[in-house]
Design goal:
The chain is of the alpha+beta class. Strand 2 and strand 3 form a beta hairpin.
């Protein structure tokens, strides 16, 4: 289920190359339209009213970012501070959904209209670390391997808080968002498993090819 649908509030980025960041996501009331962003539209993402400002973020393969409330609760305990919905920059804060355990290429129906496809894990960046104001955050987040999942839009439509999230397709492999994350960060022995995953973005497969050559 969706606990919240979160839209970015642009703010100055003190921590990375982009002058502005959209990582400050806030829950919104009412329905939000979700569509597939155009590949060449800089900063475009899937949720109406949201966008990204950092190079390498957004686009069709990173149209929507989901993070589980269960993982936010884990980090609340670890960090000793409250973490509201949206604070990790996620568009969808979920509960009861296997986000890290979702297979690359798995499809979710959200509400009655929208179908999303798991494309890749989130790789942490300097903006994420600066936004949370936690020293060594990138290494800590990486070590724990709870990355959340980016999704592409297969069928557009409206979503809202309280919508059900149902898995409607699971591909015939065992590479989850968490496994892909571990392969691309600290466990290169897992990289060969990424090479045959059709739904993984091509740039990530190319990175895996270079590292296994």
């Amino acid at each position: 289920m969706l606990l919240s649908v979160n839209i970015g509030k642009p703010r100055t980025n003190h921590w990375n190359k982009a002058a502005i960041t959209g990582i400050d996501k806030r829950p919104v009331d009412g329905p939000v339209m979700v569509t597939a962003p155009e590949p060449l539209e800089a900063g475009a993402v899937g949720l109406a009213g949201d966008r990204t400002y950092s190079p390498g973020h957004g686009g069709p393969d990173q149209a929507v970012y989901a993070y589980a409330r269960e993982d936010l609760d884990f980090w609340e305990d670890e960090l000793g501070r409250p973490l509201p919905h949206g604070v990790f920059g996620e568009n969808l804060t979920t509960t009861g959904v296997e986000v890290n355990g979702a297979l690359i290429g798995e499809r979710w129906r959200v509400g009655s209209e929208v179908v999303l496809e798991v494309s890749c894990p989130r790789i942490p960046c300097g903006t994420f670390q600066g936004w949370l104001d936690e020293s060594g955050w990138i290494k800590r987040f990486t070590r724990t391997a709870r990355p959340g999942a980016y999704l592409r839009v297969i069928e557009p439509g409206e979503i809202r808080t309280g919508d059900a999230v149902d898995v409607v397709h699971r591909p015939d492999h065992d590479v989850t968002a968490a496994i892909a994350f571990r392969a691309l960060t600290g466990e290169p022995a897992l990289l060969p498993r990424l090479l045959t995953i059709e739904a993984l973005p091509e740039e990530m497969k190319e990175k895996a090819r270079r590292r296994t050559a």
